[in-house]
Hints:
- This protein has 11 helices and 12 strands.
- The protein is an alpha/beta fold.
- Strand 10, helix 6 and strand 11 form a beta-alpha-beta unit.
- Helix 4 (132-144) crosses helix 5 and helix 7 packs antiparallel against helix 10.
Amino acid sequence: MKQHTLGHSTLSVSALGLGCMGMSEFYVGAGDEESLATLKLALDQGLNFLDTADMYGPFKNEELVGRGIKGRRDEVVLATKFGNMRGSDGSFQGVNGRPDYVRASCDASLKRLRVDHIDLYYQHRVDRTVPIEETVGAMSRLVDAGKVRYLGLSEASPATIRRAHAVHPISALQTEYSLWSRDPEDELLATVRDLGITFVAYSPLGRGFLTGRFAKFEDLPEKDYRRFSPRFQGENFQKNLRLVERVSEIARDKGVKPAQLALAWVMAQGEDIVPIPGTTRRAHLEENLETLHITLNEEELARIDEVAPKGAASGARYHETALQFVNG
């Protein structure tokens, strides 16, 4: 497994990570048994970079990941997040970056994960009511206490990243990036590269749309979160489907699957970018791992850029309420 050094850290992470969110919520997963088998296969294949968050489940995903890595902690670079508050009933209760909440969240995550330290601790969303210096200052004290090794931010703006980095080195920025979410190319990628921060790309397969598995809205399971996502609705769905068809044509010419082409494109954007596709089944994980052996030449990359330029996707990537908490 090819490895990358994660930003300002001594952590060596696999070139491909594993997003664990869908194992517990938002998408209709495969059940705990298959999820645990997928985690085991990932570790067996040398994929060591696992991504979770306290809000997934809510709270259940960290427990699941903790079960999955039991007895194999030294093989894992474990990343989790705080900041999105959830009630036990699943309700969203806003974003919190207050120092006391940072400390309490970390202790709760350690307990659920059944570990004595977190390798990479992200602020999941920026709390615009709390100066980032205060939040990152509290995170830094977790490093001093040995509870956390390195720090990250998620969905933060370039200005916020620079302010945070001045308080304590930020090793990773996690933000959505794919063929239908290329906004980071405006300024974000340049910022993290200037600061030596690794870019962790979540939803590199466009929440599954770029896999070509969805031909119509009804293909989405009834309780699936994506039914409420703007890009999966109405006219947006049809326009985005045409985008996927063009990407799929290039994949066929290459002799690979659309998901593999989309993932290979993200990986081709730089070795300082680590995609973490969410995967709940072993078969999909194996397909993703095959991408590590796929190389796109300049002609293929140019062709992909032509059919999927920045701004090609139709619809916002989140609904209006959630958009308020990105690029904070």
